[in-house]
């Protein structure tokens, strides 16, 4: 049994090594490079195991990685800190100005995409001779439809887009998890035959209010308390510690109260990031807080994207399901196109959604570790392997292909690019 320290040492060492190799040889964006190298290492180990079965290299590393509970590591560990780091850097004033677009994309877009992906995936499974219950197809739609905040924020670091559009994308990614997780919870209960009152209209509304509303309220309260505590002192070690305690405490409390932990830490991060620099933190403290959360963001992102690449060693995919998994990629892309276009047509009188942004928003719908974690959390059933393979195919395609080509799409489709970029 390997210790937590040994696992951490292995993952951090591999992250540093692959990051250095990527910087020297591949020159890919850091997060994408780690995923690609982790995936390449996984494939290489599989090939070596076939060529030299007596060495047991594949078996040994698989046993080690099998001790990493990907779902818990992402959902109950990394996610809170990554979301808080993203929310801290988001301009609350700009987000308030784009609130209509963000709310429309996060709520309406997620619902539309879930329905389209679920229906199309169900039809594709039947056409390929792998019949899948509609309820499980909709579960796949719910877990793959929300854009992943971690992956989106990592991708945007390497692409220059107009500030208003960047705020829309960041806001959508930070907030649509609450909607997606509620849908996922309800649909899993229904698909597993344990829905009961939770799958009724009233049950869904209650769950949404408790999860999303409760999470936002909790985040505002804890964020305000942290802000007032920081305002009362001028001691940067203590203020840095307050931000760390705020994230861990808010996320843990949200789980105890059955509220949305992701939305709670996003709300807390937005409030502290907006108010604390104005009148609660000295310039020295701001420098330390920003540096700390930048480092946390970079280190955790590195480990997460490496894990996504290495997870191939642990997951078990059936060869018969690979074609259906490949079909999931265009299905999700078409659903994303409709999801960002439909609100534009329905609310064109609002003036806050632009038609020329549709191609970019479609291609920028990156999925990541959260989708994989949700797929891995599914109860054991015949549908799980199908959903997991499709989820992994979409995640790899969006991060590698869409992530690497997003800059080119921006230059071709966006007019109001920041200075230095050309359309």
From TrEMBL:
GO molecular function: potassium:proton antiporter activity; sodium:proton antiporter activity
Keyword Membrane belongs to the record: yes
Entry keyword set: Antiport, Cell membrane, Ion transport, Membrane, Sodium, Sodium transport, Transmembrane, Transmembrane helix, Transport
Signal peptide annotation: none
Transmembrane segments: 33-52, 73-95, 101-123, 135-154, 174-195, 207-230, 236-254, 299-317, 323-346, 390-410
A GO cellular component annotation in the UniProt record: plasma membrane
GO biological processes: regulation of intracellular pH; sodium ion import across plasma membrane
Top-level taxon of the source organism: Bacteria
Chief place of localization: membrane
Keyword match Transmembrane: yes
Subcellular location: Cell membrane
Topological type in the membrane: Multi-pass membrane protein
Protein name in UniProt: Sodium:proton antiporter
Species of provenance: Methylobacterium aquaticum
